[in-house]
TrEMBL record:
GO terms for biological process: DNA integration; DNA recombination. Keywords: DNA integration, DNA recombination, DNA-binding. This is Integrase. Belongs to the 'phage' integrase family. GO terms for molecular function: DNA binding. Residues 205-377 form the Tyr recombinase domain. InterPro entries: DNA_brk_join_enz, Integrase-like_cat_sf, Integrase_catalytic, Integrase_DNA-bd_sf, Integrase_DNA_bind_dom, Integrase_recombinase_N, Phage_int_M, Phage_Integrase. Signal peptide: none annotated.
Length: 397
């Protein structure tokens, strides 16, 4: 290696004919016939000569080539092969160029088994799809910091508090997923963003519900026998959620028991834990009335295809001038068990499909209280169908 450095000037390089020229210190330029060329650094590492390309001329200027040559000379002087070190750095850079959208999709795919119905409904992914990925989806995950997250979620942080929190939770999972893949990410970026955003002002509002004393009058007013009214009646009688009821398939009913598949039950991760719903005599009567409307085995079929939508029952109640929502009947039922019966808490919670108790308690509790629930649901059915002679509640149609 020549000890003399910086032999060229920019004009000298430009005017040079085709050939190989040394700038000193191992930096060479190989000129071609059309005035272009390439920069090459020659160094000796572990007793062998290495030639390292530093870029094309004139895209890489003489000044830039000298800076690069100086950097890689120092690497070689430390006994490290500069070519191998640069290749390693390039691989790391490529690894860290994974975009957030790609990471989010991969994280979603790896968690499908934990989600109800493999997450087909999109509820896990939609907070990201709607509120995060439009702004950060094309950003390399390794470049995302707390300020990016804060600026992305700030517009909905107070106005749509629950949605913003879900988006933040999903984003936290994505960043941890990226870390598990070996990417260089700030694992605490989401928590830092939450600190920057501050406490949410939004107040959680409970779903409006009819008082349990008003439910029998409403139930008895559902007398026209339409699919929507029959669905509402069975919803009230069983205290289940809307989704498993709307997708009720006739082969799920055996005798006076309706078995809801585990994947259709919210919050139940154990794929073998189906939920048995005891059907009162009134519930069985409603099912028989609904059978003529069934299509493809689905009891509450939609007008054209599929099943009735989640909004169908809510719109019906709107037309009736009732502020309460269908989901609120679960609350009405639970209040009735607490105020008008001596039902043990475990039995009442199991009626709603809730899993109550600590992990140790649940490990030893093997009963689903089916017989106790059967008696309670029969009593609820009688309550709903017995006219209240002392109080008449006007509910507009």
């Amino acid at each position: 290696m020549s000890r003399a450095l910086n032999k060229f000037s920019a004009q000298t390089v430009k005017a040079a004919d085709a050939g190989k020229y040394s700038d000193g210190g191992g930096l060479w330029i190989f000129k071609n016939d059309v005035g272009g060329g390439k920069w090459v650094l020659r160094v000796h590492v572990h007793g062998r000569r290495r030639e390292m390309g530093l870029g094309a001329y004139p895209r890489v200027s003489l000044k830039e080539a000298r800076l690069e040559a100086d950097k890689w000379r120092r690497v070689s002087q430390q006994g490290t092969d500069p070519i191998k070190q640069r290749q390693t750095a390039q691989r790391n850079a490529e690894r860290n160029m994974h975009l957030l959208r790609d990471i989010a999709i991969d994280a979603f795919e790896s968690r499908k088994a934990e989600l109800k119905g493999d997450g087909i409904a999109g509820r896990w992914f939609s907070p990201l799809e709607l509120h995060v990925l439009p702004k950060l989806g094309k950003v390399p995950v390794s470049e995302i910091d707390q300020r990016d997250i804060r600026d992305t979620l700030a517009p909905i942080w107070h106005e749509k508090a629950s949605t913003a929190q879900k988006a933040m939770d999903r984003l936290r999972i994505c960043i941890r997923h990226a870390a598990a893949l070996g990417l260089d990410v700030d694992i605490q970026a989401v928590d830092k963003a939450k600190a920057l955003l501050g406490k949410q002002r939004h107040k959680v509002q409970n779903i409006p519900a009819l008082h349990w004393k008003d439910v029998p009058a409403f139930y008895q007013s559902l007398s026209e026998g339409t699919v929507t009214e029959l669905a509402l009646r069975l919803l009230i009688l069983t205290a289940v959620r809307s989704s498993p009821l709307r997708f009720l398939h006739l082969d799920q009913i055996e005798g006076d028991v309706w078995t809801i598949p585990a994947e259709a039950m919210k919050g139940r991760k154990d794929a073998t834990s189906d939920f048995k719903v005891p059907l009162s005599s009134e519930a069985l009567a409603v099912i028989e009335q609904a059978r003529p409307f069934a299509r493809d085995g689905l009891l509450f079929a939609g007008v054209r295809r599929g099943v009735i939508s989640d909004a169908t029952m809510s719109k019906y109640m709107d037309r009736r001038g009732i502020a309460a929502r269908p989901h609120g009947f679960r609350s009405s039922f639970r209040d009735w068990t607490a105020e008008a019966t001596n039902t043990p808490r475990e039995v009442a919670e199991t009626c709603l499909g809730h899993v109550s108790g600590g992990s140790v308690e649940l490990a030893y509790r093997r009963t689903d209280f089916l017989e106790q629930r059967r008696s309670l649901m029969d009593r609820w059915g009688r309550k709903l169908t017995t006219p209240d002679k002392e109080k008449v509640i006007a509910i507009s149609r």
